[in-house]
Specification:
mainly alpha, 176 residues, 6 helices, Four Helix Bundle (Hemerythrin (Met), subunit A), 2 strands
Length: 176
């Protein structure tokens, strides 16, 4: 039997709640939306770049967001010393550029695992808690956990727009 990306019972965005409930709820909605865009596809279409000249693929987006989840929640916020998932020294866009050899089932499982780890890293911490973000240019900024949540929602929203266009090009499926 051919593997297909699992169907997602997507959580809806929250309509009511305190700030933490809203931030976590919207982030989970966008996480689920990315998986929803992959639902039912086999490995081939997940690896297919469908909008020329871009090499962007659905599985590349999943791999990218796995990296981003790890970077912001565990490596930056929690200060965990974790290895990178790809050889970024050789290719800064390795998560996108190595999809030909990707295992989408393993990549989706890694994405889900990283989300659980990201949630655990943020659990119990105040949204005002900060860490120092050092940029490549040498500048440093204090960043709050609140900022991380807002940034992650923004990043998912942007990439889910990409995913929507890719999916439509692959098989005509549209919608959120």
């Amino acid at each position: 039997m051919t593997w297909k990306a699992p169907l997602i019972d997507r959580r809806h965005e929250p309509y009511l709640g305190d700030e933490r409930t809203m931030l976590e709820g919207w982030l989970n909605y966008h996480r689920d939306t990315l998986l929803h865009k992959c639902s039912g596809l086999t490995a081939g279409p997940l690896k297919t770049a469908s909008v020329a000249p871009s090499a962007l693929t659905l599985i590349g987006l999943v791999r990218h967001m796995t990296v981003v989840e790890r970077w912001w929640f565990r490596q930056r916020f929690a200060g965990a010393d974790l290895p990178d998932q790809y050889d970024f020294a050789a290719d800064p866009d390795a998560e996108f550029n190595t999809v030909a050899t990707a295992d989408p089932a393993a990549d989706i499982a890694a994405f889900r695992t990283e989300i659980e780890a990201a949630d655990a890293a943020a659990a119990g911490h105040d949204l005002n808690e900060t860490f120092t973000l050092r940029r490549r240019d040498g500048s440093a900024h204090e960043v709050s956990l609140r900022w991380v949540y807002v940034h992650m929602i923004e990043e998912y929203a942007r990439h889910n727009g990409h995913a929507d266009l890719i999916r439509e090009c692959l098989d005509g499926v549209t919608g959120d």
